Amino acid sequence: MNKNLRDLGLILIVALIIWAGFTYFSTTTEKQDLVSLEQEADIADFFNNQIFREFDSVNVELTDSVMDVIFERLSKGMDTVSYDYDIYVLKSDQVNAFTAFNGQLFVFTGLIEQTESAEELAAVLAHELAHAENRHVIKNLVKEIGLNSLILIISGGDPVVMQEITKMVVSSGFSRRMEREADEYAIQYLRKANINPNRLTQFFLKLKQKNRELPEGLEWISSHPALKERIEFVTENAGDSIIEIPLDLEWDKFKNSLQ
Amino acid sequence: MTEENYNPIPQPNEIDIREKEDAMGAYLMMFAALGVGLPLPILNLVAAIIYYYINKGKSLFVRFHSFQSLLSQLPTSILNAIAVFWGARIVFFDYAFTDVFKGYLWLVGIANLIYIIFSIIGAVKARKGQMYYFLFFGRVSYQSVFRRRETDSLKVVNQPPKM
Q1: Is the pTM of this model over 0.80?
Q2: Which of residues 50-79 of B touch A (CB under 8 A)?
Q3: Are A75 and A81 contacting, i.e. CB atoms less than 8 angstroms apart?
Q4: Residue B34 — φ and ψ, nearest 5°?
Q5: Which of A92, A184, B6, B129 could make an S-S bridge to B15, C-beta 3.0–4.6 Å?
Q6: Strands A97-99, A104-108: parallel, antiparallel or unpaired by DSSP?
Q7: Per the CB < 8 Å rule, is A28 touching B104?
Q8: What tens digit of pLDDT does each residue of A148-173 get?
Q9: Which chain A residue has its CA at the smallest distance from B90's CA?
Q10: B102 at the A interface (CB within 8 A)?
């Protein structure tokens, strides 16, 4: 009987060594790393042209100062700042915000309309920054159209294809795991930046309420799957309540100036 | 655990061809079942159990090989089943494709390969009327199949006349 136990133990140990060994030596070449930051900058150029052709931007001087204040605060909470971020405000009734390439973030005036405070927008931007820091847009594109096609598109810059890619990026159809990851990071960023992470929940709930009234035009929320699940996730992981330091912005005045 | 507690092991010349083929079938049947059961590895376990029960009443030699084949495929079946469910979670519920899972897939691949190689050797040996003991499973099967039971002695009814 002892020999049986010894043999069984031997088999288990060998199996564990194989598992642990292959786990440890797994060479995960993350495909999105094959798209260099320079290449991403190239795509960003094409992409921005496309975006500004489709949407009007709001007076940059007016929005820049506000977005700078928000970004400066959020960047205090970020462990890494991989890009030289630009946050643009686009004129549109869509309640939407999205991350593009090379640290370009876009927010529609429709979304800003829905926010009650600068902190709420900061929460949305924290989520978008998390997508950018984790290179979710590139990962998504590589997954959707393949690395080779992506590189071809970058080098060719065909306007028809770029238009399609623009649609994909604007609708920001991230997977559930990516959304969760972005929420997780957003909570961290917000906490460290002294903004209550539940601002994100607050915004979700508001949109959920609005969503019942207006089923259309809420792209930011409809592209974010399982809202209920996410509200629960953020609420559960928001941690102990923190003393929020308000952002030094006159929010209502800013909102009025957008109209 | 002395030799006396065990039934004698039949030698190749004592085993008829039918038994040899049944014993070989125990291993070969698993390959067929492995193919069918690939999407749901539990199926080949069911097949293995059925095969074992069909052959249980046959000679100890056939029973030993059937039992060894059944036991030795338990771990691979369980490993495969876990791989399928884990994989399904990744594909359908968007869980992360981690290095741990990759390492696990290697383990599953290697385990299946070892299982297949040893099953082929087992089938060849069984066809020749030889015993073949897998590590661990061989001894456990031998102990389980060849051990003398209380009921075995009751079977000896006919005795030669007293002389």
Answers
A1: no
A2: 75
A3: yes
A4: -65, -40
A5: B129
A6: antiparallel
A7: no
A8: 777 676 666 666 777 777 777 777 67
A9: A177
A10: yes
